[in-house]
Amino acid sequence: MLRVGDGSLELLKGTLDVLLLKTLSHGPLHGYAISRSIRRATDEAFTVEEGALYPALRRLEKRGLVEAEWGVTDTGREARFYRLTGAGETELASGLRTWHRYVAAMARVLADGHP
Fold first, then answer.
1. Is 17 contained in some domain?
2. Disulfide engineering: 46 pairs with which of 10, 21, 42, 88, CB 3.0-4.6 Å?
3. Structure pTM?
4. What is the domain count for the chain?
5. Side-by-side strand order, sheet with 9-10
């Protein structure tokens, strides 16, 4: 599950996929590093729980949007490292366009002076 802030709000479907693809667009990472990166990038506002992270990564892998291979972490542990594929880059671009439209529409609705 992807939680916002105190965990009282779940985000829209598809949010996690876009966050994962965007995070991996910076380079290969293992699961814990992906989760940590999202927490840091959002100033701890978003937390990706293990129970949501790994099924989402497997789903993205099955769709051909990410690839995984075994490697060794900075701490010497073996872990699967995920990286974005070409299809993942295309999906990310599409997802970002959708999110930008969504944010712009919400901003128009929430703007002061809107009837």
1. yes
2. 42
3. 0.84
4. 1
5. 9-10, 2-4, 46-48
23-62 residue pLDDT tens: 999 999 999 999 999 999 989 888 888 888 999 999 999 9
Q: Which residues contact 39 (CB under 8 A, 6 or more apart)?
A: 46, 47, 48
pLDDT for 51-101, tens place per residue?
A: 889 999 999 999 999 999 999 999 999 999 999 999 999 999 999 998 899
Residue 65 and residue 83 in contact, taking contact as beta carbons nearer than 8 Å:
no
Per DSSP, the residues of 23-73 read: HHTT--EEHHHHHHHHHHHTTTSEEE-HHHHHHHHHHHHHTTSEEEEEEE-
Q: Is residue 8 part of a domain?
A: yes
CATH number, domain at 11? 1.10.10.10
Beta bridge partner(s), residue 11: none
Determine, yes or no, domain membership for 115. Answer: no
